[in-house]
Amino acid sequence: MIGTRKLILALAFPLALSGCVTGAEYSRKEAGFISVANKTATVTAKETVWIQNRNQARSAAAQVTSLLARTKTIDAETAVQIALLNNKGLQAAYADLGDSAADAWQSTMFLNPTVAVGLTGIGTPGLEAFKTVEGAVVTNILALATKKRDIEIADTRFRQAQLNAAVRTLQLAADTRRAWINAVAAWENVGQLQRAQATADAASELAQKLGETGAMTKGAQAREHVFVAELAGETAKARLAARLTKEELTRLMGLWGSDLDYQVPNSLPSLPRAVVKRDTIEAEALRNRIDLQVAKLELEATARSYGLTDATRYVTDLEILTGLETEREIEDGDKKVDTTGFAELEFAIPIFDTGKARMRKAELGYMRAANELAEKAVNVRSEARSAYEAYRSNYDIARHYRNSVVPLRTKVEEQSLLTYNGMISNTFELLTDTRDKINSILLSVNAKRDFWLAEADLAPAIYGGGATQASAATEVAAASESSAGGGH
C-alpha cells in the first residue's frame, strides 16, 4: 500500500508543478519588445514598432507617408525614424526575439507522457474479443528534476535575444545616419564641382575667342579646354557616387515606388563651435554597451548549461513506466477478469560513457565565453577611446580647412586673377591656382563629412550598434572624394 501511494504521488507531481510554472510572460505576441523599444528610445529618441498584423502594418506605413509628406527634403532625424518604422530587415530581427520567447515559453511546459496500449489473444477461440489488455504511461523523471535549470537557461537566452534586438535597432539607426551624411556630402561635392565647371566653361570660351584673335596660342587654348573636359569627368564621377550613396540611404529606409521622390539637403550642417567633452567615455561604454551585456548573459547561460551537464553527467535518461494489465479468462463457462498494476524504472548504466567528455566540452564552452567577455570589455574601452579621438581630431581637421586652407586658397586665386588681368602673370598660373582652390574646397567638404561621421559614431561606441562594413556605394563616394550637394 505504501509503495502504491508513492507511485501515485510521483505521477501526480508533474501535473501539480505544471500549475505553478506558467509561460504567461513569454506567450504574449510582443513578449520582450517593450523593453527593446524603451531601451533604444533612450538612445535614439525615436519610435520603433514590431509589425505583426495588417493593422500595425497600415499604421506604420501611414506614419512613413506622413513623415515624407512634411517636406521633400528630409533631415537625418527623419531618415532614422523612417528606417526604424519601415526597414524589413529590422522586422526580421524582431522575429528572432519572438522565436526566443517561444523557446522560453516551451521550456515552461513539461514533456507529454507517452501512452502505450497493447492487446493479446485477439481471435482466440472461446474468448469474446481479446484475452489481455495492457496499458502504460511513460514519464521522464530526469526532465522533471532538471526543469528549473532548463527554464533559467531559456530565460537567459530570451534576455539575450532582447538585447540583440536592441543592438540591431541601434545599428540600423547608426547606419541610416551615416548613409544620410554620406549622401548629403556627396551631393555637396557635386554642387561645388558644378560651380567650378561654370567658371571653367567661361575661361574656356574666353580662351577660344582669344585664340581667334591670335592673342592665345593653340597650346594655351588646349590647356584650358582639357581642364574643362577633366572637370566634366570629375563632376560625372561625383554625381554617380552621390546617386549610389542616396540609394544606400533609400535601402536602409526601406523605400520604393512613389516614396523615392525625396531629396536630401544641399550641404551638411556647419561645424559646431566646440566639441563635446567626454572624459569618462570609457566608463560610459562599459556601463551602457548592450553587446557587452549580451556577452555577460552568454557567460551566465553557459554557466547554467555547465551546471546542467554536471547534474546529468551519469544519468542522461531516467524514465518511469506505470500502467495496468487486464486479463480475461473463461473457465467452466464463467468469465473472469483480473486487473493488476505495474511499474518499471528505465535508465542507462554509465559503464562505458561516464560523462567525462561532455563535462570537458561544457568546461571548455564556459572558458570560451569567459575569455570572449574579457576580450569584449577590452575592445569596448578601446573602441570608445578611438571614437572620441576620431571625433576630436576630425573636428580640428575640418576647422583647419574651413578657417585656414580655403580662405588662403581663395585669396591666392583672387590675387592671381588681379595679376592676370594686369598682364603680370600668365594663364597657366591662374589655371593652377583655380585647380588648387577647387581641390581645397573638396577636401574641406570631405573633412566636414568625416567629422559628422565621427560624431555619429559616438553613440554606437557608448551604447552599441557600431559601424558595419562599408557598402559599395560608400566606397565609390570615398574613392571619388565626392560629397553632398543640391537637393537631390
Can you tell me about this structure?
The relative contact order is 0.14. Helices cover 68% and strands 9% of the residues. With 488 residues, the protein is of the alpha+beta class. The protein is built from 15 helices and four strands. Mean pLDDT is 76; it is low at 1-21, 311-315 and 468-487. Helix 4 runs antiparallel to helix 5.
Helices and strands, with pairings:
Elements: H1 2-18, H2 24-27, H3 33-44, H4 54-70, H5 76-86, H6 88-107, E1 114-120, E2 132-140, H7 141-145, H8 147-213, H9 218-253, H10 281-288, H11 290-311, E3 318-331, E4 334-347, H12 356-421, H13 427-456, H14 458-463, H15 472-480
Antiparallel strand pairs: 1-2, 2-3, 3-4
Helix pairs in contact: 3-8, 4-5, 5-8, 6-8, 8-9, 8-11, 8-13, 9-15, 10-12, 11-12, 12-13
Number of distinct beta strands: 4
What is the makeup of the main sheet? 4 strands, antiparallel
Oligomer: single chain
Order of helices and strands: HHHHHHEEHHHHHEEHHHH
Can you give the helix content as a percent range? Answer: 55-70%
Total DSSP helices: 15
Summary tags:
4 strands, 488 residues, single chain, disordered C terminus, alpha+beta, 68% helix, 15 helices, four-stranded antiparallel β-sheet, disordered N terminus
Compact summary:
With 488 residues, this protein is an alpha+beta fold. The chain has 15 helices and four strands. Helix 8 runs antiparallel to helix 9 and helix 11 packs antiparallel against helix 12.
